[in-house]
Write a structure and sequence with these properties.
The structure is a homodimer of 427-residue chains. Chain A has 427 residues and is an alpha/beta fold. Chain A has helices at residues 31-43, 70-78, 97-110, 125-128, 139-157, 214-223, 234-250, 271-282, 287-298, 324-337, 341-348, 361-373, 389-404, 417-420; strands at residues 3-8, 48-51, 85-91, 115-120, 184-185, 190-191, 206-210, 226-229, 259-267, 355-359, 379-382. Chain A is built from 14 helices and eleven strands. In chain A, the strands form two sheets. Chain A has an eight-stranded parallel barrel, surrounded by eight helices. A two-stranded antiparallel sheet of chain A has the order 5-6. In chain A, helix 7 (234-250) links the parallel strand 8 (226-229) and strand 9. The radius of gyration of chain A is 21 Å and the shape is globular. The first copy, chain A, starts with a strand and ends in a 7-residue tail after the last helix. The interface between A and B is large, with 74 and 74 residues.
């Protein structure tokens, strides 16, 4: 059975989506817009909605990636939905374990056990300089902190036994012997605990992890219960899955960890119509901003690159110090497709080099099924290029095909995100 | 016109409220319970609901003060209400300005301009040790940090001009010249800004402040737009109001700052019935826990105190290093009422020494009106001893009396918390 998340991002994952006349650009601070998206995904029986997050404003002349803070937005969305999971990105570099454990505990209570967290280490100096760092701490330090962060957060959730409550009106509210301090003291954090919450519906909100670097994979192998992967094509996805599954086993973990690559889809009743949808978004793209973004993704100054010339040679991956997964994908697009700069911009403007599938509902279902059968994916984190249109298209046209093939649920069988993903409740 | 907040705390402000057979003790992690409370207060046309907060679990054998994290809870409650303000306590000692500014901005967007924040500096070592401090930093340091925190948070909200958005689909999303970095660098914080949000509905969520110490009053005078005060009786309230109003003027501020003392009420159709309500809660109080709490409030070991003996002499206020306001009130209760230990416990178990009014709706309205006419209050932060019963009593019985006297609104005239409180929109 496939797992599907809706990855919510601004007006959609295509950077030019907001420029479309029908885009929700005026509604980015309106919680009702996000509630509608969650309801569409719930109508499609998705496992979860997934919120990315960042801690700086980037280039304000372009549409923001995020406007509402995800935990507060998801708390509201929890009350507009009944079954769908609610996954918030959390930066382990900027949050402290107590705040994170508490906010997520609260979301798990508010949603009745539908909370998830996607641990990231953040990357930009502009973000670091909003949180007291003079510049972004280096990659190794961030991943050491992330590991300790995950341990401390899990420890805080474990500080209450599942059966700690008594609510004995003539005696004790909770059994003090079943609520224990954590007394965590590590390189980065001092956290005594216990958490000032009550036992959580899921015990632990489901931990997602993304990250293609060596340290990211190591962190995922130790802690992640589900993985948001980046894979440009099936061979890349298969290689990633093989590697991470081996690491999970090597870490002594028995349970399956669903791997969900990001996926951009353009669906229509004919292949030509689907391609036209894609082209119409690509044509809204302003060249200058796109070249700036390409510069951010490659660590190059791309402002002078000729649009219709082949992409200049890029340094090998070892020399790039930003997020490794996306850079590897760019190198792969260049190698496989030998695109012009303009063509590369078009690919990167939607999903930043994640897999793109364009075609009819049957064609897209075929391709998704192939990834699943051939060990490239346990599901997908859908990155609709334009919201809400692209996710409505997917839910109305692709989901029924997947359901007819027995590849996707026709009804929720569980009430918690953990149940949707087939994950055991932590002991 | 009076202002009224509902101060939400667990099963109510009386420490024994949860022990009543009809208490909501099983629902403390259920967001629907808090939504119901907010709807009751909104039916009563209250200005706001007000959430206290703390960062440790205290004694888990007794009912917790807080279970849900306030910002996530209020985000959900925003969608269950339409007009009422939503005030979250924020610890400036544990939060950083960027997180606080962003979470509150998100709540202001989600609620359509109904967010407020109550800045506290926190007080207990157990809380400090959940957030990386070996022990609680001293009072002066915390208040210096709170002042810088307030400046940085306001600065982040100011980083977007109110008219910064363009949403020009052929051009810019925002006018980059109207979104400015903050570049705050002070003793405690480095925050570059701008905030990754959009201009806020209220521009600034309304800042509440509580705190009776010299530093607390100074902070309130510089920044607070509304004040949650502690006053045992009208003379204490009058003295507090005179002092704080003079400080606000001395700080060069022209606008009125509504002062709202905490108020515990027991209402019934006869005075005897109201007293019986109070007594029935007092009788649920376990002695040992109450003596422990008294120890926390006074810095003494009270465990051996004889219940029916007069309260032993306490050190003068200068020798007590906890929250000054509450301690001063305890000294005053002892001076005025000369209570036994048991009687003092009864007073402190509900509202910790805040003003208590017991009687018929007319009697309570008389007393509230007297405080208001004689310069002791611009409104009240209601601390219902037992929830939801005590606030239902107040809304159904006292509010209509206040409304008939023209002392309280019969309908909301504004849509934002700022409008409810008669506060100008910051320039």
């Amino acid at each position: 059975m496939l797992h599907l998340n809706l990855f919510i991002l601004g007006c959609g994952h295509h950077r030019a989506a907001w420029r479309h006349p029908a885009s929700p650009a005026e509604r980015l601070a309106d919680i009702a817009y996000y509630e509608e998206l969650a309801r569409i995904a719930e109508r499609g029986k998705f496992d979860a909605v997934f919120f990315a997050d960042g801690h700086s404003a980037y280039d304000v002349s372009d549409c923001p990636f995020w406007v509402l803070e995800p935990l507060t937005a998801l708390a509201a969305m929890a009350r507009a939905t009944e079954r769908i999971g609610l996954v918030s990105t959390i930066s382990s570099t900027f949050y402290t374990p107590f705040h994170a454990a508490r906010l997520l505990a609260s979301l798990d209570h508010i949603s009745g056990g539908r909370a998830g967290w996607n641990v990231v280490t953040s990357m930009y100096d502009a973000e670091a300089r909003n949180h007291g760092y003079a510049s972004m701490p280096d990659h190794d330090w961030r991943y050491r902190r992330a590991d300790e962060f995950a341990q401390a957060v899990l420890g805080l959730w474990n500080s209450w036994d599942a059966d700690a409550l008594r609510i004995d009106r003539a005696g004790d509210f909770a059994d003090a012997a079943r609520v224990r301090p954590l007394r965590h003291q590590g390189e980065h954090f001092l956290v005594d605990g216990p958490l000032n919450s009550l036992p959580l519906p899921q015990r632990h909100p489901v931990m997602f992890q993304a990250g293609a670097s060596e340290q990211g994979r190591a962190l995922a192998a130790r802690h992640a219960e589900a993985i948001y992967a980046v894979a440009y094509d099936l061979p890349a996805a298969q290689a990633y899955c093989r590697d991470v599954r081996a690491r999970v086993r090597a870490a002594g973990r028995q349970a399956a960890v669903p791997i969900m690559p990001g996926l951009v889809t353009y669906v229509a009743s004919t292949d030509a119509e689907a391609r036209a949808k894609q082209r119409s978004l690509d044509e809204l793209l302003p060249t200058e901003t796109s070249l700036q973004q390409l510069g951010m993704f490659t660590g190059q100054d791309c402002s002078g690159w000729a649009l219709d010339a082949p992409v200049p040679a890029l340094p090998p991956i070892g020399q790039y110090h930003g997020p490794q997964g996306r850079y590897a994908t760019i190198l792969r697009i260049i190698e496989v497709e030998q695109p012009t700069v303009r063509q590369l911009l078009g690919r990167l403007a939607a999903g930043g080099g994640h897999c793109t599938m364009v075609g009819t509902p049957e064609q897209i279902a075929d391709e998704m099924e192939r990834w699943w059968r051939e060990g490239g994916a346990d599901g997908f984190n859908l990155m609709p290029p334009a919201l809400p249109g692209s996710i409505e298209d997917f839910v109305e046209q692709v989901v029924p095909v997947l359901q007819r093939r027995g590849l996707f649920r026709t009804e929720y069988t569980g009430r918690t995100l953990r149940e949707h993903l087939g994950l055991a409740r932590p002991a």
